[in-house]
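Q: Structure tokens for this one, please.
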Amino acid sequence: MLSLNERIDRKLKIREATLVDLDSIISIDTQGSGIAKPEYWQETFDIYGGLKENRFFLVAESDDQIAGFILGEIRAWEFGSAPCGWVFAIGVNQDARFHGAGTKMLDAISEHFRKAGITKIRTMVARQNHEVHSFFRSQGMMAGPYQQLEKDLL
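A: Here is the predicted structure, written as tokens:
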């Protein structure tokens, strides 16, 4: 039997996420974050799942196993910014990393953005998350014109 990595290399396809994929998405997210958030992912699927205009929830699948997920939408005019594609979340099963799943998912969501007339894609990454930061940098993403600011509300 082929390993998950070998199956990913051979048969990876990107498709819209379905409700049946939710347990796998939760598992992959838990691997990355260390926190199981089933309610969050159910709410997220309710908002982004299915064919919704300008919202995209995709999975990478190989031999009926979910290798990863990506979530994004087209947003417009925050802070004077022209419409652009935003990637809110990406996750790849630990056993499937370094086999192109992340790249293929980012390419697929980028194509959805392009078809909608979007020419720029953005995301936010925690500074300490070197793995995800390195992934996005390897895909040609770099610092943009905006800087996040925050304040604790006590």
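A few notes: Residues 4-138 form a domain with the Aminopeptidase fold (CATH 3.40.630.30). The longest strand covers residues 65-75.
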